[in-house]
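To illustrate the input format used throughout this study, we show a single complete record. The first block contains the structure-token representation of the backbone; no residue identities are included at this stage. The design step must infer an amino acid for every position from geometry alone.
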């Protein structure tokens, strides 16, 4: 594995981790807002968190061929 590819893989892992952590923070914030009575803002935050989790799932869940989109993107870099 080349140094460039290793850096790219590490950056992808870092970004996926940040997106998941942000989604968890959004869900916690949505719960807190819902308890305070701001239902509309809480719903919007929960929807955003769901979209973020769906994007992570699209990139990481294997396709019928057994590779994920992240694997295919890493292969196409070469």
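Output of the design step:
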């Amino acid at each position: 594995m080349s140094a460039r590819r290793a850096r790219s893989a590490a950056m992808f892992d870092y970004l996926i981790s940040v997106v998941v952590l942000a989604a968890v923070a959004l869900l916690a914030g949505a719960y807190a807002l819902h308890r305070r009575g701001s239902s509309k803002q809480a719903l919007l935050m929960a929807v955003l968190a769901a979209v973020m989790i769906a994007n992570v799932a699209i990139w990481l869940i294997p396709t019928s061929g057994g590779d994920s989109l992240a694997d295919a993107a890493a292969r196409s870099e070469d």
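Structural context for interpreting the output: Helices lie at 3-36, 39-60, 69-77. DSSP finds three helices and no strands in the chain.
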